[in-house]
Automatic annotation (TrEMBL):
GO terms for biological process: bacterial-type flagellum organization. The lineage of its organism: Bacteria, Pseudomonadati, Thermodesulfobacteriota, Desulfovibrionia, Desulfovibrionales. This is Basal-body rod modification protein FlgD. Belongs to the FlgD family. Transmembrane segments: none annotated. Residues 106-175 form the FlgD/Vpr Ig-like domain.
Amino acid sequence: MGYYGVSNIVGGHEEYVAEANAPKHKSQMDKDDFLKLLVAQLNHQDPLNPMEDTEMTGQLAEYSSLEQLTNVNTTLDTMLQQSASDQMTTAVSFIGKSVSAKGYNVTKDGNQVSTITYNLGEAVSQLKVNIYDESGDIVRTDLLGSKEPGIFEYAWDGKDDSGNIVADGTYSVGMLGEDVDGQQVMVQTEVSGEVTGVVAEESGYYLRLKDGRYVNFNFVTEVVSDSTINTDEGGDGTDSGSDSGNTDNTDNTDADA
């Protein structure tokens, strides 16, 4: 996410003015150019060898098609601009509200580590959690044991496999389950939090959460309020229920959000 200071804003304004005053160069012929070319061709045709009716009809048909395509493009541009405006309005309306969205990031700031929610559509005999740093290296692996279908919350204590406290920053969570038949089950993870701002990027709009994470506006699944959900204290590899998980340092492939 990029943010700009005053110098960037001023420089951007000067660039905008320069572009606005610069002569426009068109790489393609529009309908006005086509019509001017056709009129010029008629004015300069050889009187002894005038344009055939079929040729005139063909060129007029081309002009009609060009005009229709131009109108379609104009309509599409208008629709896209309106859609972007509506999306921004909706995104801004989320500020101050709590949302859930598909995602896999957690943030660590001192002793505070954000949590992540996951949904199991089927029972698993083993659930493995990998914590990745920004370089893609695994810093922590937890085994949470068997799980029944349901919605759970995973809480990491911010330590690596050796028990050392890791640096503050953003980390990714990858979860992979194994069913009773030994088949791998990908697990969908979600993040939630209070929205404090909206950021516009080329790829779309992103909601900034209170804990510093960003979620794609298009990935929002619901606007939520405080609710009671199950919690896995994954920091020490121990489930908060009656099951006890163990810590595993082996590598595995995570499920992308």
